[in-house]
Amino acid sequence: MTSVGSTVGILGGGLSGLLMGMQLKRAGIDDFTIYERQSDVGGTWLRNPYPGLHCDIPSHLYSYTFEPNPDWSMVYAGHAEIQTYLRACAEKYGLLAHLRLDTSVETARYSEADGSWDLAYVRAGDVAPATVSHRLLVSATGGLTEPRIPGIAGRDRFLGVQWHSAAWRHDVDLTGLRVAVVGSAASAVQVVPQIAGQAASVTVYSRTPNWVVPRNNRLYSDAERAALSDADVLRRVRRRQYKESLLWFQAAQKVPEAMDTLRQRTFSNLRASISDPELVAALTPDYDPGCKRILVSDDFYAALALPHVRLVPKGVASLTESTVVDVDGDETEVDAVIFCTGYRLGSRADGRPAVAVTGRGDISLTEYLGERVRGYRGFATPGFPNYFTVCGINGSVGYTAVFAAAELHTETIAGMLERFIERPDLLSVEVRTEAADHYTDAVQAELATMSWSGDCPNFYRDAQGRIVSFYPGTIGRMRRELRAMDLDDFIFEVRPPVAATRP
Ligand SMILES: Cc1cc2nc3c(=O)[nH]c(=O)nc-3n(C[C@H](O)[C@H](O)[C@H](O)COP(=O)(O)OP(=O)(O)OC[C@H]3O[C@@H](n4cnc5c(N)ncnc54)[C@H](O)[C@@H]3O)c2cc1C
Predict the structure, then answer these.
(1) Which residue puts its alpha carbon closest to atom 10 of ligand 1?
(2) pLDDT tens-digit profile of 371-383?
(3) Which CATH number applies to 3-41+95-144+345-494: 3.30.1330.10, 1.10.10.10, 1.10.220.30, 3.50.50.60?
(4) Tell me, what DSSP letter sits at residue 407?
């Protein structure tokens, strides 16, 4: 029998799920539960403690605007410091009592009869799922939680150690080992310089080179941190860092000057470390900056220039007992293989969605979105009443911290939930199909002109080539649009009157 849970269920205890909880508290709503399948809050930053992991957006932007942290130790903080910050925020806002940790929500099914969401969840150690219902559901399950390892023949034959960067083997000492790194994108540029200091040799397999601009990371001095405790100083620093981040947005818009600046920054970064023309050529992308995520690193190119580090500008075809075989059949003897091969967007290791969501008329969210992209302002989907997402379809911005869009979405969702909860006569709130279609068509038309739609392999496009994650505008535009949103775009369905019963 399904028990009746709190009014609001929140799926995920990463920075977005925690933020949803904070916004509800700020709106005076205390009746909510946050489900998190890991054993603590923090999402990505708890899940990925690999060496070298730092944020690629300055920390003063990669934080909640209403919880600034003048004490960030460096311009781009490491994962442990970010995780500590998120946990401290969860504590400060009294969210710990709302958390159900080690609890994986498997399915969420909308009940048309009473307008609630029935969840089936499994707690660590439990065999059978338990069920609970919530009147309203917010999904904040993130997109990049499950590691993706490409199908490479012979992986099971390899006698050395192998792992994905997201499941780092801290128990393995790489000192003196011959290591292969598969991939050369966001994780690899952080991992390679770290392991190059220990391993006897490092061979980096790269199918596609990336645009890698200097991060210019550095520690803040005590004097700077003291100055940053003044709210005005911090505001000015944030404003300057945000303005700088707009360069990436301009590259996404294919502004020629922005792309030239990024090209020039990459080449001076590259040439400062590498003089071998063949290696420079192998590291030079043949697509415009902005088509794939722009990477930031101060030490990746320098690591590749070390005598015991080698770039193989090819994909991996297979593993044997002791070697990595590239697509041209060349073999390299290794003791360890580290996969820096990214994540399964929004799904679990076996390809199932993070949560199997079923809406009105028994429609699965995955199948619904597989047929056509149809979302509304990144937080609502027709056919899925009383259900909202943080940074959902076309809801993320690629050029600045996810915090910015997540704050706008959670603020909007909290407003919708407040309005709904005040009206016990309401059965459901659901975005109109026409409104979602109109919005999605406009957004998709705009995205088709942007660099993410360009000629490069990137994980932003789905199997049909549609960009489903990104919003095409700036945060300022998203804010204006969300605050001007027309409530007539939603259907507020009133509960049918209960038939009078005879005494
Ligand atoms: C290695 C790495 C580095 C990154 N660096 C940056 C960066 O520098 N800058 C940037 O802007 N972005 C970065 N990102 C993107 C990053 O994911 C987001 O910035 C941020 O973590 C998103 O927060 P979130 O809460 O939305 O999602 P997540 O952090 O992914 O949190 C989602 C949570 O939901 C939980 N969950 C999922 N499914 C279920 C379920 N069925 N039941 C219960 N719980 C569930 C997960 O366990 C997870 O804790 C990075 C991502 C990765 C993987």
Answers:
(1) 401
(2) 788 899 999 999 9
(3) 3.50.50.60
(4) H
